[in-house]
Amino acid sequence: MKQRDIFLQSEGDAWHRRNKSSVFWDGHKTFIKNRLKGLGIEFKSALEIGCSCGALIDDITKAFGCTGYGIDPSKEAIRHGQETFEDIQFFHGTAESLPFGDDAFDLVIFGFCLYLCDIEDLHKIAAEADRVLQCGGILVIYDFYSAGVFRLSEYKHFEGVLTARLDWPTMFTWHPRYSLIHKETVFFKNTGDRIIEKRNVPASDLECLWIIKKGGS
Questions:
Q1: To bridge 46 with a disulfide, which of 107, 125, 135, 174 should be the other Cys (CB 3.0-4.6 Å)?
Q2: Could you tell me the residue range of the domain that residue 96 belongs to?
Q3: Is the pTM of this model over 0.85?
Q4: What is the number of domains present in the chain?
């Protein structure tokens, strides 16, 4: 069975139940929002792929005054988001088939989801993100850090599912239209009452923010 189907049918909801408290962490949201603010770019329409209940995309839309959309394989997360963030438009689905028109967004975010996608779908996923992202737009990837070595590991929560680590921006930057404009590794730790940012940790524990610009006209 495809991993996307596993997440659409059950594991997406299970992931949401395990992590629904952490998706509201200010550490991640503020980190990503501030780096985007630092670019000095305004956005009109933003999409988060793998949005969970929409806490990040809601924060982004408020910060930039843009419209916000989110797509996630978890029906429970989508219901949670619809009840919590009324200004966000939510969709149930996965990254390789986006229910949006061409050039619909000037900001597309992969919200910590690529590591769980089917490896054989990565070409489709890149093509779909490219299709919905306007020329001159910004693509954000927030995921596990990789030193450039492709690696598959067992996903401990569901037998047979694999997690991947690779240099995610290369899905796009092989093309001359795309250029990496920011890369930053980070590690956030939940101490129970607050989130702290740490730097001196093993590479295997690091997360990374990549910001990529789509050129052209």
A1: 107
A2: 3-214
A3: yes
A4: 1
- β-bridge mates for residue 141, sequence order: 110, 210
Nearest C-alpha neighbor of 70 from the set 86, 52, 44, 43? 52
Question: For the domain that residue 82 is a member of, what is the CATH number?
Answer: 3.40.50.150
Instruction: Classify burial at 49, counting beta carbons within 10 Å of its beta carbon; exposed 0-12, middle 13-18, buried 19 or more.
Output: buried
Sign (positive/negative) of CA torsion 19, 81, 58, 136? positive
Exposure string of 8-23, with b = 16+ CB inside 10 Å and e = fewer, is beebbbebbeeebeeb
Positions in the chain short of pLDDT 70: 22-27, 188-205, 217
Provide the token pair at 168. Answer: 């995610």
CB 212 within 8 A of CB 181: yes
Which residues 6+ apart lie within 8 Å of 201 measured at CB?
187
